[in-house]
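Homework help thread (please don't just give me the answer)

Our assignment gives two proteins as sequence + structure token strings and asks us to describe the second one. The first is just a warm-up. Here they are:
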Amino acid sequence: QVQLVESGGGLVQAGGSLRLSCAASGRTFARYVMGWFRQAPGKEREFVAAISWSGGITYYADSVKGRFTISRDNGQNSITLQMDSLKPEDTAAYYCAAVRTRSDSYIAERAAEYDRWGQGTQVTVSS
């Protein structure tokens, strides 16, 4: 089983950048689809980005496309979310998530599809 720990959140001005990391334990990390979600106060958790086993397939929410980049390093059991051109509406708690799948061609974008979650890291973007 995989356990997840996020890091890298913080306070940044609009237009700035942050890089989130998610460290995973477990020997089968390379067979997990990985995703990032976020949740702002009073709002539902929403999909941000996901990446397939090998990293060959990535998928982004329209709200972050062109600004955020998800990547993974299976040798280091980690994923990152590079966030550029941040906006105040990106303010939220960001969560790393994982689900073991049977195919490298599968991407999951619904929170209900993931069964492993980190504790979250706060990102605050000031205007």
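The one we have to describe:
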Amino acid sequence: QVQLVESGGGLVQTGGSLRLSCAASERTSSFYAMGWFRQAPGKEREFVARIRWSGGSTSYADSVKARFTISRDNAKNTGYLQMNSLKPEDTAVYYCAARRQYGSMSYTLPAAYDYWGQGTQVTVSS
């Protein structure tokens, strides 16, 4: 069973930065893509960003575009989410997810992903 472990969350002031990491228990080159999602209290889990392991093409939610950067390091089997210019509305539990194969389901949907981490809390104070 693939395990994904997130780290790097915490408390930061508005305008600050955090970098989240997602370490996989197996070679990430075997995955099609990795995604980051977040879930705030009382809200549904929402798409944040996605990266294809091969080629590295990226996609972002409009709410984080130009502030967040997703990346991966295949040698370390780790994905990252660099978050800059953080806002209070970015407060949520952040989850990384891995998708094993390409499929017709949109990458913005949680159901498109096969494996999930346990989540890491990000809190942005105003």
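TA reply:
I won't write it for you, but here's a hint about the kind of observation we're looking for: The chain has a mean pLDDT of 95.
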